[in-house]
Structure formats: structure tokens, C-alpha cells
Amino acid sequence: MQSTAFSPHDHSHCISSAINHAQSLCAQRGVRLTPVRQRVLELVWRSHQPIGAYELLAALAKEGFNSAPPTVYRALEFLSEQGLLHKLDSINAYVGCCNPETPHQGHFLLCQVCNKAQELESQYINLALKVSADQHGFEIQRHTIEIIGTCKECIDKPSLSELTP
Amino acid sequence: MQSTAFSPHDHSHCISSAINHAQSLCAQRGVRLTPVRQRVLELVWRSHQPIGAYELLAALAKEGFNSAPPTVYRALEFLSEQGLLHKLDSINAYVGCCNPETPHQGHFLLCQVCNKAQELESQYINLALKVSADQHGFEIQRHTIEIIGTCKECIDKPSLSELTP
DNA sequence: TGACAGTTGTTATAATATAACATAACATCC
DNA sequence: GGATGTTATGTTATATTATAACAACTGTCA
Question: SS3 of A29, please?
Fold first, then answer.
């Protein structure tokens, strides 16, 4: 099975590769990945668990960055416009995008046990959405597709309460 | 083409039928559709435009109902549990459910021009979601599926700015 | 240099949602 | 009918998420 956010992996590699990717993309597009923007992106990538705006704000504050809400919301807006992260509407949290060079709106699996998110890019889902929209003569601009449940790792791993008799 | 929230129709019929439906369902289930709960449901159904919690609160206040946030959030929670309405996470608004007897999570078309919402129940979408989840060994509990764009009526109807030279 | 665009700082506030505890209404059992 | 438990509502306060508005700074390039 392919590697996902849910399965164990060298996550520091995810972070550094995401940042490198972002740097080159921004350079290429002539937009500025300023220190606060880059730091927000790193913080978002620190785990595969989506992170809230005010959590980011607290982390920035600890590091001596300016820490008023507009700072982080502006950074999130920029990163989102550049396709470097996605917002998860069902939980008001943000997660890094693995594939920022091609603008897209992802589909997400959100695990309620480990709180990690895995982005999907399913052509089946896209097609199903398109067929439904077409049936109604509806023109799609964007979408929010979030599947909430339990990931394989958390299903397989007995919970603490099940371990203790 | 079938009738939808987007197309013109006798909406007072939608409202009264939704309320009748809700009354019999609640009776059947032995739960109480109290005055404030019923009024919230009516307000939600007043248009096919999803309505926000604080709009509901303001409407209740005008009518002499208690109007502190918990009042409306409790009613929304009850109605949601009973499958009588759905929350749209992408816009923090609530919309009546046409088919409350069978518990389900809907798929929605949201028009950004007329702000109306149409619930879909597409087996294609459900299947596509299930296939994607299965591929990852992921067990679905619920989902948020919202397609944002422009409805047929708003595409066909030239906008005001296009009408004036 | 100065003019402009873009970015950041700062203060205030809007919008959405819940915690916590008190009171009231209803149900039921004796 | 009164005691009791459960459900629903009232009330106050506060948490959480997000944006408006305007000032100041920074980089760029004519």
C-alpha cells in the first residue's frame, strides 16, 4: 500500500521537501515567501495533523514573530492562494498540500482518532461530483470534500481502553 | 428536469410539508418538537437559502422567543440529530433536509449567486467516496460534501450588470 | 529620489459557538 | 397528589474563529 499521512514515515523529509518545493514555486511565480509565510508553512507541515489558526499564532508568538490574528490569517491566505495548503472547513484547520504546482482542491480523509489528515486526489470523486453537477446544469467553482472517520492504523491498533482489562 | 431548490416553485408547500413531516417523525420517535424547535425549523425552511445561527437568533428575538445563543444552537443540535436539517460547514449555515426519515449525510450544491442550496443524494458520489476510503482502509463515519458554484438559473439569467450598458 | 505596490504592524471588533450552572416543564411511579 | 428523575430552557459568561480599518515599513524601479 502506498505511503500516507497515517502510516509511519520520516516526516522531517515531508517538511523540508515541502519548504523546498514552496521556495522554488514562489520564486518561479515571482511571489514572496517571506519569513512569516515560510514559518507558517513549516508549522503547518510540522505534523500531518491539521492545525488551527490560533495554534499557529501561539507558536509564532513563542518564536518572537508578531502575533496578532491578521498576521497568521494573511499568511494562510497567501499560502492558500499559492496552493501550498488547504483549509479543512469541517474542523477549521489547515493542512499542507503535497502537490502545490497544479492548482486543485483536494479531497480529504480525516481520522477522528489520531487527528491526521490525508489528502486524496481521486478522479472517481471528481467525476462523480461533475456528473451530479452536470445533471443540474450546475457549474462548479470549488468544493469542500471531507471524509471523517477512522484510519487503518487506528482501526488496527487497539485503543488503550481495550488494552486494560 | 426535476424540481430543485434553484427553480421556481411553491415554497410555502415545502415549508408546511417539512413541518408536518417533522411533527410525525418526532411523534413516531418519541422526541419532542417543542415550540422553539419547530420555529427554528420553520425559519430554516423559510427559504432555500441556508441561514446562519445568528440570523435565526435575531428572527426568534423579534418573535419574543428567548434569544441567547444556546437557545438556537440547542434547537439546531436537536434538529440535526433528528436528521431534519444539515449544517453546511463551508458557510456556517443550516438548511432543511427533504428526506429526514432516512438518516444520511447529504451532498450539496451551493450557488454563489442566488445563495440557494440544493441537497443531492448521489449514489455515484457515495460510491466514489467509499472506493477512495476503502483503498486506504479508512472507515467512514460522516462526511462534508459541498460543491460551490453557479446554478443553472443564475447561469441562464443575465446579471444586472450585463443588462445595463 | 520619489512614487508605487506589496507587506506587515496595530487596534478594535465581528461572527460563530460552547461552558456552566440555575430553573422550569414534563413524566412516572408510588 | 406529591416525590423523584429526566428533559428542556433560561441566563451569564466566555471561548473560538475571522476580519475591518488604517498606519507604517520595505522593496523595486523609473
Answer: helix
Number of domains in chain B: 1
Residue A102 lies in a domain: yes
Helices (H) and strands (E) in chain A, counts: 7, 5
Check whether B117 has a pLDDT greater than 80.
yes
pLDDT tens per residue, range A2-45: 678 999 999 899 999 999 999 999 999 999 999 999 999 999 99
Rounded Cα–Cα distance for residues B53 and B129 (Å): 29
pLDDT greater than 80 at residue B63? yes
Residue nearest to nucleotide C14 (CA to C1'): B54
Candidate from B111, B129, B144 with C-beta closest to A90: B144
Q: Determine, yes or no, domain membership for A115.
A: yes
Q: How confident is the model at residue A54 (pLDDT cuts 50, 70, 90)?
A: very high
B130: CATH: 1.10.10.10
Residue B4 and residue B156: Cα distance in Å, rounded?
Answer: 15
Count of beta carbons in the 10 Å neighbourhood of residue B144 = 24
| Chain-chain contact of A150 with B142 (C-beta, under 8 angstroms) | no
Q: Please indicate if any CB of chain A lies within 8 Å of the CB of B147.
A: yes
Name the closest residue on chain B to residue A136, using Cα atoms.
Answer: B152
Note whether residue B154 is domain-resident.
yes
Domain extent at residue B124: 11-163
- Asked whether strand D has any atom less than 7 Å from the CB of B120, the reply is no
Which among A122, A143, A149 is the nearest to B140, CB-wise?
A: A149
Would A144 be classed as within a structural domain? yes
